[in-house]
Amino acid sequence: MLPDREHDGVLSGVRVADFSRVLAGPYATMMLADFGADVIKIEPPGGDETRAWTPPVDARGQSTYFGGVNRGKRSLLLDLTDAADLATAKRLALEADVVVENFRPGVMARFGLDYETVRGENPSAVYCSVTGFGAVGGAAMPGYDLLVQAVGGLMSITGPVDGEPSKVGVALVDVLTGLNAVTGILLALRERERTGVGQRVEVDLMTSLLSALANQASSTLATGEAPARLGNAHPSIAPYELFEARDRPLVIAVGNDRQFAALADALGAPGLASDARFASNRLRVRHRAELRAILAGLLAGKKARDWVEVLTSSRVPAGLVNDVAEAFELAGRLGLEPVVDLPGAGSDPVRSVANPIHLSATPARPRVPSPELGSRGAGVTWR
Q1: Which stretches does the entry tag as region Disordered (predicted)?
Q2: Lowest-confidence range among 10-19, 185-194, 315-324, 339-348?
């Protein structure tokens, strides 16, 4: 059963025609659905390709990849090459508050669903386009996350110092771009409240990544020198990296001199804080290799969990290198409620990652899991 759209969150009453697929666009529209937007996911025959990305599957036998970014939506199966289906798609776009698409530049125009056409008949629409490399010089470049991590510089600073460049273990650029899309859509809706007029929101994977490179990007622009891989170390802070304890790795993230002095005391080596090589962060960065060797020797004497307890009690940021299951367990112990159970097949719920945005008055309320192909779409009408 669909949630009550009239009283279901801060975005209740916002209607979204979602032509996007795979990850960046669907992640954005799922975030909108969590806060009450009515999202119609328009899928081609066969559905979003991530429906076939299995295993693993959830309690209903549905792809967990697809399910992880499409909860709370309705699915409408439309073949845009069919005249009747295209007419339905156009009607939805012309009645929507928000249109989201991530086709290659030019594809939506071919179907008469591009921004200019939609704006001509629906000037209040917020139209969000998600691309890999923009709609001008990079229009022909395929927007795959791995490709963007490579050409966007992220792989050059990720991985072992003496090893090969590495990708991040999740399609992080897609997720970042999806979050930028949410931000842009909400900003455009806010402006529409003042003017009554929508606008186009454009986000792309390439500039989303460059922005997310943060200090690595700003240092490159300031110095003209590209940063190198440092493994798990930090270019501007030390010690801020991974160490091996007796049984398993842990990380220590010292951000200031007080924390370093506390670390030295906790390790039973208080003289490190006054050592001329390590008396300030700048000096610790300069003598990183020497400091690392000393700390590695001290940390090898105890189990990682014991060190984490000692260091945390001394207000030194430290933690185990958890796997994903352990990370959920930790978040649960901390009272963060990281999982939401949604109604599934029979008595088995579909477990889903909770929305990370917490509003005190109008919280996210995921109610239903991702739709079966074409379900919840029959007889779709908004007006």
Answers
A1: 361-383
A2: 339-348
353 forms beta bridges with 339
Chain centroid to Cα 349, Å, comes to: 24
CA–centroid distance for 259 within its chain: 30
- The pLDDT tens digits for 287-296 are 999 999 999 9
> Three-state SS for 143?
coil
User: What is the DSSP annotation of 61-127?
Assistant: S-BHHHHTT-TT-EEEE--TTSHHHHHHHHHHHHH-SEEEE-SPTTHHHHTT-SHHHHHHH-TT-EE
CA distance 111 to 255: 53
Nearest 5°: phi and psi at 373?
A: -60, 120
> Hey, which residues does 130 pair with through a beta bridge?
203
Band of residue 349 on the pLDDT scale cut at 50, 70, 90:
confident
Query: For this structure, is 114 an active site residue?
Result: no
Mean pLDDT across the chain: 93
Confirm if 268 and 280 have CB atoms less than 8 A apart: no
CA gap 167, 381 in Å, rounded: 43
pTM of the model: 0.91
Spans of all domains in the chain: 15-212+338-353, 240-244+249-320
CA dist., res. 322 & res. 305, Å (int): 11
Q: How far is CA 98 from CA 3, 12, 32, 324, in A?
A: 19, 13, 10, 34
Please state which CATH number belongs to domain 240-244+249-320. Answer: 3.30.1540.10
Q: What pLDDT score does 3 carry?
A: 41
Instruction: Return the structure tokens found at 130.
Output: 């998600």
What would the two tokens of residue 129 be? Answer: 């386009």
Rounded distance between C-alpha atoms, residue 348 and residue 341, angstroms: 9
DSSP of 216-265: HHHHHHHHS------TT--SS-SSEEEEE-SSSEEEEE--SHHHHHHHHH
- Tell me the C-alpha distance between 257 and 240, whole Å: 12
- Strands 350-353 and 126-131, by their bridges, are unpaired
Class of domain 15-212+338-353: alpha beta
